[in-house]
Amino acid sequence: MDGHHLCSGMEEFFSSRRNRLDKQNIKISGKFVIEHSTGLSGPGKSACVQIYSSTELDPNTSSKGKLSEKACLTKGKSSKKDGTKVTTYKIKLYVEPEFGNPGAFVIENNHNHKFFLQSATLETPDKLAIHFDCRSWVYPIKKTKTTRVFFSNTCYLPSQTPPALVELRKEELQSLRGDGTGERQEWDRIYDYQVYDDLGNPDKGPDYVRPVLGASVSHPYPRRGRTGRPATKNGSINLDTYVPPDERFSPKKLSEFIANVIQATAHFLLYEAKSSSRDSSSFESFDEIRDLYSENRSQVKKGQVREKMKKLLPNELLKQVSHASIEDHIKFPLPHVIRENEWAWKEDEEFGHQMLAGTNPLRIRGLKIFPPRGSYIRKSDIAHNLDGLSFEQAMGQWRIFILDHHDYLLPFLTEMNSEGVCPCASRTLLFLRNDATLKPLAIELTYSVPSDDNELRSRVLLPAKEGTDRALWQLAKAHVAANDSAYHQLVTHWLHTHAVVEPFIIATRRQLSVMHPVHRLLDPHFKDTMHINALARSILINAGGIFEKILFTGKFSMELSSELYKEWRFDEQALPFDLVKRRMALEDPESRAGAEILFIDYPYGLDALDVWKAIKTWVEDFCDFFYKDDGSVKSDTEIQAWWSEIRNVGHGDKRNETWWCQMTTKMDLTETLTTLIWIASALHAAVNFGQYAYAGFPPNRPTQCRKFVPEEGTMEFAEFLKDPDKYFLNMLPERSQATLGIALAEVLSRHTCDEVYLGQRPTSEWIDSYEIKQKFDKFNASLQEIENKVLERNRDSKLKNRWGLIKMPYKLLHPDATKVGYRAGITAKGIPNSVSI
């Protein structure tokens, strides 16, 4: 037989054998959807997958499910969705009839580039569709040295895991924990803890030394994600700080975020360019401040802003944004606080309104004991101003409130005073009027006097309607606003949302398998948080960062945040607990919300209780489906390890506190999960997305004061009498600090286009349970009902605090649960699922 006939015969033999084998085996079809960053090609033949059975053990290993042969991803079909290239690959796999149902697959990337695996679907011969909600980066195996495993969207408690998947579940969790050594590389999928040891930069000099936060009695703090980079090495904006790949911004969001930063920086630099020729660092008039929002660009030469930006921002940021986008959009948008009435912010009623519906509506509380400890405010100072009530009646009816920024600041005042600012600690008393507006009664300011051996001195100022006393009162309110601004950024916003959530994210990734139902529940509420926190450590909270530049707390900012972490309790972040503790609500065990608001015209409190109730109902429905009784919580090994790690490691400086729940009942679990979801979604939305509306105008919410309220008989008082408005303007942050603060508020207040809001999931196949999807639809419907309630309340003219004198409707807790990612920009509404900006 010649060679040609021999080869032909062998080919026919093997082809016939393959056909017989294929007829004996069964076919599993697969569809894999991959997104690409700009400039990256698809994986082509360089990526292959293998399927694990979830029901049949491999007799050769006896510990893992049967594993199919490899199939390559080839001949993908590409399309574009919202500007992103998406390629769909279809595969066919033949497995033995006893293979069982697929429950996991491994993918190997032999390509030169990473790719983003969006989803996968496998279909068995009996038309059973098995979905995989992947949404994860897959890096080249030459970097990772290992394949990636993905599990289907079926959830199992640890004790219910199919035997064929038990070992895979354990291995996957172990791989995510690492060994706590080495510097992390971009492709590492490792979650570990570290203290805040990277805020300082001693190489720049002693002024940039900062204490390590965490793992100490004097400076306790939540843990952050470990990067492995050297401690206290901090430079300019660093987009390459390690964050586990699945916690990073999407390429689209990163590009949008950078564009927003560039635009806000251009606004800041435009004003710097226009102000460089002026002698004074202070604003010279209110008209000059309002000019920040003008379209007049006549004083700026073409390219001037970009040239200045080159000195401020690294090239990797600048090269991603076009020259035109910098030069053509260089005005600040008009903040709402001056949009309808440019002087309403000065009124006492608006001052009180913002404590109930502004950026920090969580600090005000009902006054329980008068006078406050150590206070110089006397009954005679306020008794005449209670709208006809006696002092005793006002106290008995819970009508006197306090905004307290006093005692926690006292230990820092002297040192802050030496830093070129004029810090005060403040107490503000307010009276709840019959129309539910708050009327300020008195402001107590305490400050350090350098000429008297840093003696602390206090003075009480009372409201006035005209003349010199009115102008002095306005100065006192500015000091209160500066206190509240710093507390809001360092505690209410950064510490109580960003920082306290990060340990929960790390523990969830390390201790709860992606197959665990609680992991599936929490996952959308962790989106982008670790990445934005990493950026904050290199831009906002670091030595010489934006917070130190704009806040009166200066280089003591994070030390102060650490001091107030000593008071933090996770259980008190549950909304009902917080409202009742602050005497803004009454405990109501009979209601699902757990509390009844004290007066309905508290916009934050009223809307918040509705959202809390909806979240709690959803969490209870979810947990009831997976946990039949208390014993199933107690016996859940992953939940117990998760909770132990949060208490003892992630928030390890609080490990000995007695207020932690024991996590032995369904109530423990549902209350914990409700509180965590509340913090990550609605609480963060309430304190973040209204920043530009209020803080975008520095006189309304200054971040520091450069002058004290002058005392009669001093040179400062003579200066004040000569021109009270000029004294007020000189008290405000200087131009550069003020415009930097405006730029920051602009960036932080913007929603991005890929935002996923409360009551939404990025895909309908996030879980395979029809019952859970029904309960989730019910949750979404309840949020849409809340939207209607919010709009209805805003139409009620009797509820004055819904709008305030600035005529801005309160919509910060309007969920926007109907469409995914459609409200990009500064909207002052919408509740994203996570702390994502």
Automatic annotation (TrEMBL):
- The main enzyme category here is oxidoreductase
User: Region entry Disordered: which residue ranges?
Assistant: 212-239
Keywords assigned by UniProt?
Dioxygenase, Fatty acid biosynthesis, Fatty acid metabolism, Iron, Lipid biosynthesis, Lipid metabolism, Metal-binding, Oxidoreductase, Oxylipin biosynthesis
Spell out the molecular function terms from Gene Ontology: metal ion binding; oxidoreductase activity, acting on single donors with incorporation of molecular oxygen, incorporation of two atoms of oxygen
Q: Which Pfam families match?
A: Lipoxygenase, PLAT
**Database matches in PROSITE patterns:** LIPOXYGENASE_1, LIPOXYGENASE_2, LIPOXYGENASE_3, PLAT
Q: Where is the PLAT domain?
A: 30-152
- What pathway does this protein act in? Lipid metabolism; oxylipin biosynthesis
The catalytic activity of this protein is classed by the Enzyme Commission as: 1.13.11.-
Required co-factor(s) are:
Fe cation
Q: Which residues form the signal peptide?
A: none
Know the name of this protein?
A: Lipoxygenase
The organism's lineage is: Eukaryota, Viridiplantae, Streptophyta, Embryophyta, Tracheophyta
